[in-house]
Amino acid sequence: MLFKRAFPVALTIAFAWLILISYLPLDPDSPAAATLLNVRGVLVEWAVNLAAFALVLGFGNLIGIHARRIRSGESVLYSVVLIGGALFTLGLWIAHILSVMAEQQVPLTVAMLDPGFLVRAFDWVIAPLQSGLGILLAFVLAVAGFRALQVRRSVGMVLFTATAIVVVLTQPVVPLLDVLGPFRAVVDSITTGSLRGLALGVALGSLAFGLRIIVGADKPQSD
Amino acid sequence: MIIQLLLQIALVVIVLSLPIAMLVFSTSTRRARGPQMRSLSAFDVLRGQVGRGIETGRPAHISIGVGGIVGDDTLVTLAGASIVDSLAPEAAETGAAPTVTVADGAAMILAQDTLRRPYARRGDLAGYDPRDVQLLGMQPFQYAAGAMDFLAHAQPVSNVMVGAFGPEAGLIVEEGVRQGLTQVAGSTDARSLAVLFPSANHLLVGEEVFAAPAYLDRRRGHIARLQAQDLVRFIMAAVIVIWSILFLFV
Lengths: 223, 250
Known about the structure:
The complex is a heterodimer.
Chain A: H1 2-22, H2 31-71, H3 76-104, H4 108-111, H5 116-151, H6 155-169, H7 177-214
Chain B: H1 2-31, H2 41-47, H3 49-56, E1 61-65, H4 74-94, E2 99-102, H5 105-122, E3 133-135, H6 140-154, E4 158-164, H7 169-178, E5 182-187, H8 190-196, E6 202-205, H9 212-216, H10 220-249
Parallel strand pairs in B: 1-2, 1-4, 2-3, 4-5, 5-6
């Protein structure tokens, strides 16, 4: 039981410190630096392989959840299209690999690296669909802004609306750029300062949160 | 050259001062009562979510973002998982587990493990359902489409979104508004904060997403971490101001 609890934590701490030390500015020609870089490369490769395996598990989860929804009669059409689309794409990819193996006389591991089919699937189907959804964002944000102004009369909302108006009116297509230019400059400088403050806070928060993990004070991977 | 060296030394001092400050505050917190922390409405609302789930018979929806745990978003995803970690014990006790949604395979395993642990501690693994964690899509906008559909059909009692998000978060919270849900959102990304601001009822901005263990569980080490962060941030801000004033005269 102790081993089950302590082993993942010990492994995390050891690997985390190894990776951290490999980023220290050592002499790049020294054997220690070369060893650390090699170890880092191997560990990162392991992580990528594990993430790839997790992707397969995730795919199984996605299919399982939609299969359950079909059984319970909930959003049947959407789930059928999703499972059908996923399995159809998987089938096409397998067929593509087999054809590459037959045509180029290459082993499976090489054929799997051929991106041809996946690039086409992404460019022709996924990217346009995602762009379509992305375009909605501008309208959604405008509607949300107006609604929030009606419901929430806070200082934050007034600032949000004023900034949105200044940004819209200072676009190159609007002939008010010269008049409102100074206001835009004020908005930009406030935004830049705020973004730096946000980045500073996030950096410190990440650093402190990460430090607790690599010294074993927090154990997101174990009890 | 000298300025570059000074900046490097300042960076090393800051990095080293953080763990030292955490250690000092941790020791002092152990002796005294914990400090008074400023109220964050998002965490006040989060505390009641499992209870509301029991009352209404509908689970809470928790999204830990579209990030994974192999890459730049690791710590923000872990921060999102820390909220699941804080709510999971009550969920295991009452049997009203939240539904956690993710957009990455490794994040899915992390969320499943986080949700499972309290059940294992109670010796009630039969009560744990791995399908309470759902992978809705593997790209941000695919995930957003899946999450919108989930909010529309699963009728959760509330929508909690804390993790790595991009602008697609705006679409999800808008669906939450349409469904009349109480919404808590948090992100470290400026673009997603901008789209979340008008629609989310309670917003966690920037480093506030890392504060969940301190606020929800009152864990001593995490409270000390927040104190150390505040101290180092104050010092850094002072250094930046002094540095800027010096540049005006040099």
